[in-house]
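A quick aside before the break. I want you to see a complete sequence-to-structure record at least once, exactly as it would be stored in a machine-readable document. Don't worry about memorizing anything.
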Amino acid sequence: MAVYFDHCIDAPDSSGSHSQVAWHPTQPVLAVASNSPTTGGNIDLYLQQGEHVESCHVERPFQPTVLRWHPTKPLLALGWETGEVLLLTHPSGEQTQLPATHSTCITLLEWSSSGSRLVTGDQSGVLALWKVDARGRLHGSYIAKHDYTKPLTCCIFRPAPPGEDVAMLARAAVSGDQNALDMFNWRKTGKAGPLTMGPQEGLVVYVSTADGKVHCVDERGVSSLLLSVDGSIQKLFYLKRRDVLAVITETLLLSQYTLGPEGEAQELMKVKLSGKSGQNADIVSTDTGLLVTATGDQVIRLWDLERDENYVLALDESMGFEKGELLNCVSYCTAKEILAAGTSRGRIAMWRMVSQPNSRPDTKAQWKLQTPTEVQGNVSQLQWGSSLNLLAANSLSRVLILCEHVMSAHYSQQVAAVQVSPTQLSLTMFSTNTQLSLRSDMHIKGVCVTKEAVTVWNGKQVTVYESSGTTLRNTGTFQCESQVLAVHDDNIYTVEPNRVQVRTPQGTVKQLLAFSEAEGNPVLLSVCQGHLVVGTDTAHIKVFDLTRREAKAHCSAKNLVEQVPSLGALRSVKCNANGSQVSILVTQVNGRPDHKVYFYDVEMDTVSYFDFFTGRPPSGVSQAEDTDRRTLTELRERCPVSHFWDESEPRLFVCETVLTNTDSTQMDQLDRVDVLVVTFFCTQEHGLLLQDSFPKPAGLQALLALDVPYYYFSCKPGEKVLQTEEASGPVQSPSPAQAQSPHMVSRRALRDFQGLETCEKATRDAMLNFSFYLTIGNMDEAFKSIKLIKSEAVWENMARMCVKNQRLDVARVCLGNMGNARAARALREAEAEPEIEARVAVLALQLGMLDDAEKLYKSCGRFDLLNKFYQAAGKWQQALETAETHDRIHLRSTYYSYAKNLEAIGEKHMALVFYERSDTHRFEVPRMLLDDAQSLETYVNKMKDKNIYKWWAQYLESQSDMESALRYYEYAEDFLSLVRVHCYLGNVQKASEIANDTGNRAASYHLARQYESQEEIKQSVHFYTRAQAYNNAIRLCKENGLDDQLLNLALLSNPEDMMEAACYYEEKGSHMDRAVLLYHKAGHFSKALELAFATEQFAALQLVAEDLNETSDPALLARCSDFFIKHGHYEKAVELLLAAKKYHEALQLCLDQNLTITEELAESMTVTKESKDLSEEARKELLESIADCCMRQGNYHLATKKYTQAGNKLKVRALRYAALLKSGDTEKIVFFAGVSRQKEIYVMAANYLQSLDWRKEPEIMKNIISFYTKGRALDLLAGFYEACAQVEIDDYQNYEKAMGALTEAYKCLSKAKGRSPDEHVARMADLEHKITLVKRFIQARRLYEDDPGEAVRLCEALIEEPDLDPAVRIGDAYGFLVEHHCQQGSFQVAYRMLEELQKLLPSLNISYYVSQGSLAALQRAVGLPMGRGHLPGRADRRDSGGEDDEVEEDEALESNQGDL
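That is the input. The structure line, written in tokens, reads:
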């Protein structure tokens, strides 16, 4: 929490009311203009605390109008109502008057961004541009002057275009920044282009006039009209991010213009701002494009120009503002992100921008109103300024300088001090439960307390107070310019360059603790027990032992720069109680606070850290195995703001952390808290151990200290967190004479000490050891540390610790020592839950830790148990939200439970709503409203629900209101109740109409009973039938002899009723066909058939037999089959025999009656191998019998299939060969041969195929060769090749192909194994001889062209061979010789050769062997006929059309030869 120190300026007596204030942009110097009716106008300069600078007083007999500071130099430009412009230098007071240029009141003074240009303007419209050198001296006369003839209102310089800041880059390069060096050496590195350097400052000026015009003056001083608006212009703003010029008129009309490269302006948008028109509005803008306006209303208005949004900020009366308080002026501090507004009642309202995850900046939700600062009078002007971000408030009568100061607070030795105002402290002494207030005559900048003294200082003076009972007395005051201070016993430690001074309470220096120049100047001090830790401006730390008479160095100075990367400066240092550990917070080089807490181990001289941004140290948090991971996740993306060690326990460390801005989607899913207090155990052996973490309770401000068993927090004045207060009684109020002090400190017990706040030191130490050992998982030591404790409260507290650590094994021991049997039983029953968090939550519930139980249920996702928890705790809204969002399976039951709860507390209207949501309203709402009949009837009529109508009708019927009951039964469509009530009223006819119209079974049944009671049998049977109560209808038919209706009713009913009706017909002896039919429909086939046989009901018998199957009685099946055989229905008889599994009888019946065995019938006769009806031999015998029968009927395909299934290969081969031959179905023969994969079948198939015309079907020839090859019948294949060769010779005289076929035949025969070796050898010799003869003939024919004589000789030799034919046909040999002699002209010899041929072959067709040309020539030469003509049907194959067939056969033969 911060307070503002206010300093009223030390104004001279001659000054009157203050009209203007102006801060220097960087230096803490304030210029104040005042008007006095006697002396005129005054200008005075004041320092930070209001000190008047007498050398800079300016006085004129006329009024000042404008004040403007130079942006960097201590140079103030002053404008007067006479047109005079003066430059005032601080602190010398030198005054420089500008040459006389203006003659009327000065309205404009504006410096350029670096101060090289000054613009002046007056009421008459004259504008002058002046040049100022780097030292702030004016360069002669103006460089440009323009007269616009209208009063000048506003002026701004256009910012320079973006470019590199060369000066900043140079400084970075000198400091070793490699990127900056690369930018300067871009030619060598090649990493980037040359520097883009724009002008150092913008020199283009925009000036506005009272007539609504904006003029542009460029760098050369040339003026041009830029734009024009309606009305006088009040403000000009330049939005650098968007390059947009914003213009606001006195009527609050906002216009935005985009500026082009040539200086032209184009209107972007125009809008009327809200606020009082005609008022002198105070308007400021921010760098983010936010306009803030105060127009004397009760709100200030904000416009976001980038997002085109607007909203208002109002005052809050609960924070100390008054009703009707007006806001006059505003000012925004960019560095602090604080918006300040002055009010008409002398208050300064401040809104601080608070960063919130997932919230856009500059929105209303980001602005948080602070506690107001009180000033006197009507605040007319506010202005932030200087590098110290000071605020000046002008209330006309006086000017205040406000400086923000973080409220000082300190705790030590059971005494806490918190600053409540700049000069007041609130003291709380917890050892005596007393509260004191201390007022000082100085502004307190720091406080340090001990058990007996309070020390305060302001950086220049130190005052020591001693407490005596309920009073405080001043024991010493001395001057000391020390910004930090520490106290131990009677020693006060202050700092000065390179040393720490040890002083007495009166200020006497009794010891100096020196630091070397390398170690730096001390800037931080902290005392814990008997040790002092000092931090220097060079990031060194050093620990001193204060337990002796003089302070001694506990260790040498440690340089943290070597250990901490990017370290900028130390923020805070603290040491533990024994001086072994030092915790450090640092600031990085970039000025941002580091997310890490560093720990320096004095004995080991090592530095470690915990990173709150990642939520863990470099090697992870040392923790028990079942640590709650959610707690570790909660530590992520945080920054530490304060840290403390326990005053007596050196292992215990606490740190206060705040949530940093993050856009992480994972963080959005968690309920992150802004401020988290984290406690660790820190030891040399185990490192950092997470002990506990909890969100800072609402109403508390900052962590003050850790002193077991309490955390100590500061709180806002008057606020007190009840759950954090100790049980030792209220704090005593001071006496009436003592100044009243608000309660400013609150304490909260540590988790491990809740309920044990007043325990003795031994118990406290035991609990600390138990917590420590439990944290590291050493259960033996943990139990050893508490084995002597008998207090039930201690065991309960340890059980609470087990909830945090999720150690259920330890919790069971604690519950046992507590004697809490109920909790132990609940914990044992919870072991069935799979999640450890759910089981721990049960323990938390039993211990009353409801918040922890809630968090545990959420963390493990057990929303069903969370729902039950909320219901049991009476948190119905949370229960409903949980059910609606996460536990929808229990949504209706949750609604129902909530409705019951609402009903119990009398909220019947809301209960009604939730009964409806739970879908239980049909019963629950009538029950709830039963006592209020009027409301109930209204609800019934409103809901129009059939179930509710029915309930209401029943209620009315119970009240004997039959007419109304009938109406509501009709609404409910409850036809049974309608019929019932009508029957009760005697209106049976109406009831009959309802039952007939609706067909309602229940209504029909009730009416049927009514008619039966009245002995109206037909009507009763009718309505029993409509009600499908057939047994009752059958009963009435039997009792009353309604046989005709009985059959139909029985057929509609179940089998039992059918049997009963059939027995009735059978006993009666009439309508036996009906009895058979009913027995049949009831499934009693045997009884139906027996009755049909007995009464010779053949038509019924035929009908029954159709439903017989293999599940029927075999004897019954056989009897029925005999019946069908007797009457010539053989097919049905066969089916019944097969159903009875009499396969042989069925087959024999087929043979006797010549019934065709279809494939379906054959399959039904086939018994599977898995069947137990026949043995394997009998099954095969049956299959062979079926096959024999199929053979007799000519169904070779089916017969072959059954032989194959029978597995009788010998018989299969013999019969299949015959079947294949007789069937003539080539396609099936080839198919079955291919799938059978048996040699014999392959051979039989090939033999069969040879009987076909394979010469014209190449496919058949391929199959023949393939089947013989697969069947390993090489001798048969050889014979087939011989047949092929003979065909080539006989039909085509193609001896070459014949030679190839014979060769293949020889190859096959040579591989074949003959039955007799002699026979095989003879056949081989015969084939070899044929091949020789064919070769000789082929040789002779081929040799003829080259050597005809030799060819003739060879052919003549062949003729002499005794067994030439059929290897070489004798006709071919003679024909060759005849052709030769005809060509040679030896016709006589040719004729003689023909005669010899005719003698050998008398019936030969000569033209088959000799060409027609040769025969004609021979006939002419000899003059004799050549004998018989061509043989009938024969033709010269060499000229016939059989050539195509030859080609096909040749191709087939060649392809199959290739396969071999």
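Two observations worth writing down. The radius of gyration is 61 Å. The chain has a mean pLDDT of 81. We'll return to this after the break.
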